[in-house]
From TrEMBL:
One of its GO terms (molecular function) is pyridoxal phosphate binding. Residues 435-456 are annotated as: Disordered. The keyword RNA-binding does not apply. Belongs to the TrpB family. It comes from Pseudoramibacter alactolyticus ATCC 23263. Transmembrane segments: none annotated. The beta subunit is responsible for the synthesis of L-tryptophan from indole and L-serine. Residues 80-418 form the Tryptophan synthase beta chain-like PALP domain. This is tryptophan synthase. Its cofactor is pyridoxal 5'-phosphate. Keywords: Amino-acid biosynthesis, Aromatic amino acid biosynthesis, Lyase, Pyridoxal phosphate, Tryptophan biosynthesis. Tetramer of two alpha and two beta chains. Pathway: Amino-acid biosynthesis; L-tryptophan biosynthesis; L-tryptophan from chorismate: step 5/5.
Length: 456
């Protein structure tokens, strides 16, 4: 007899993961190494430590260790908002009249409103452990900056945030939450850094991008003594920390004999998608189980579906190491869409390699269809999703409707990465029919892709 599935499956505090899982250890084709842009040789530990914390560099470069112990201090902080629930979307299933079973892992139940806190507290912890004064970072929609400002306040670290200019203007309340927690928030590109001034001169009136903000944050970190740069997505270390999402989801599924057929996540830089799918992908890589994995990105910034798998800078100012990833070119500046967390020109090297090897799929969706799905979800499930999360909701609904057409009883799991209470300007535009869909033309993409670094 099958178990009754409660609406929300909660784990005990004792079931919060004690280790992070490193999916690279089970990948036959490892992500290509980061390259020093000057020498085109793989970066070393010493190359990265002037920019990143020492312990984080060790995690970044380790492709072979399957599990990393989570320090007790981080697990204690996790207890303030973890474990997070795995929710059976009964109401959505009924509204869609679908035979599909829909689950979502909800990561928005903390003050930062998103999954970003999982890595922010880890990176802040290692900065504190190293005796640093503070950290610098970029943020798009503001979830990462908020999470990092919370973590720095908790540990007594200074926090300097460069926020993509369009989001700085669209989301003033998220900016103010960062300031409440003591962060110094600057719209990017700014006139306070050499790189910011250069970008503004080259692109007058630009609304900015994550690539621009990364450049400014790295410059600041390497200019001020006692600071290091931390990043909210893309890097291997971030996917590692975010594996707590997938590990908890996996434990909850096992408790109730839930076997997902398809696992879906929104994809900007890859942190939440990588965290959600890593333990399940590990099972697939080891030949233990099989799943479909679907990355959902905005049609306005389609790095997976229209980008190139190549080495590129992670930032517009071209000061970072080169990463082999699906990219639109570091000079690409996407339209001012409202999913600010999905406006990065590239994708996690881990996820890029998995996608390149055919182990996961990707789909690009338009902004108006995303907001339609968000409101449909909110009206029946009672959670107002962030625009980023709503990309996964859009495709989860589409999968459920296909099940309705075919009669398949498939099980769908998606990541609900955050709440949208600071995104009301976007919802207002959607409800006023003032929102459009901007999709880059082939000429625009070919222009930025033509400037990729030459790597043999």
């Amino acid at each position: 007899m099958s178990k009754h599935i409660p609406y929300k499956i909660y784990l005990e505090e004792s079931e919060i993961p004690k280790q992070w899982y490193n999916v690279r250890a089970d990948m036959q084709n490892k992500p290509a190494p980061l390259l020093n842009p000057a020498t085109k040789q793989p970066v070393t530990f010493d190359d990265l430590t002037p920019v990143f914390c020492d312990d984080l560099v060790a995690q970044e470069l380790d492709d072979d260790t399957a599990y990393f112990d989570i320090p007790d201090a981080i697990r204690e902080y996790y207890k303030t908002y973890r474990p997070s629930p795995l929710v059976r979307a009964y109401n959505l299933e009924r509204a869609l009249n679908t035979p599909a079973k829909i689950y979502y892992k909800f990561e928005g139940n903390n003050t930062s409103g998103s999954h970003k806190l999982n890595s922010a507290i880890a990176q802040a912890y290692y900065a504190k452990k190293q005796g640093l004064k503070g950290v610098t970072t970029e943020t798009g929609a503001g979830q990462w900056g908020t999470a990092l400002s919370m973590s720095c306040a908790y540990l007594g670290l200074d926090c300097k945030v460069y926020m993509v200019k369009v989001s700085y203007e669209q989301k003033p309340f998220r900016r103010e939450v960062m300031r409440i927690y003591g962060a110094d928030v600057t719209p990017s590109p700014s006139m306070t850094t050499e790189i910011g001034r250069r970008i503004n001169a080259a692109h007058p009136g630009t609304t900015g991008s994550l690539g621009c903000a990364i450049s400014e944050a790295v410059e600041t970190a390497t200019t001020y003594e006692g600071y290091r740069y931390v990043l909210g997505s893309v890097l291997n270390q971030v996917v590692l920390h975010q594996s707590v999402i997938g590990l908890e989801a996996q434990t909850a599924c096992r408790k109730y004999d839930i076997e997902p057929d398809v696992i879906i996540g929104c994809a900007g830089g890859g942190s939440n998608l990588g965290g959600l799918i890593s333990p399940f992908m590990g099972e697939k890589l080891r030949g233990e189980k099989d799943y479909r994995f679907v990355a959902v990105e905005p049609a306005s910034c389609p790095s997976f579906t229209r980008g190139k798998f190549a080495y590129d800078f992670c930032d517009t100012g071209k000061v970072t190491p080169l990463a082999k990833m699906y990219t639109l070119g570091c000079d690409f500046i996407p339209s001012a869409n409202h999913a600010g967390g999905l406006r990065f020109h590239g994708m996690s090297p881990i996820l890029s390699q998995l996608y390149h090897d055919g182990l996961m799929e990707a789909v690009a969706v338009e902004q108006t269809s995303v907001f339609a799905a968000a409101e449909q979800f909110a009206r029946v499930e009672g959670i107002l999703p962030a625009p980023e999360s709503a990309h996964a909701i859009r495709v989860a609904i589409d999968e459920a409707l296909r099940s309705k057409e075919t009669g398949e009883t498939k099980t769908i799991l998606f990541g609900l990465t955050g709440t949208g209470f600071f995104d009301m300007t976007a919802y207002e535009q959607f409800n006023d029919h003032a929102m459009g869909d901007t999709i880059p033309g082939d000429d625009e993409l070919s222009g930025s892709l033509s400037e990729l670094p030459k790597v043999d």
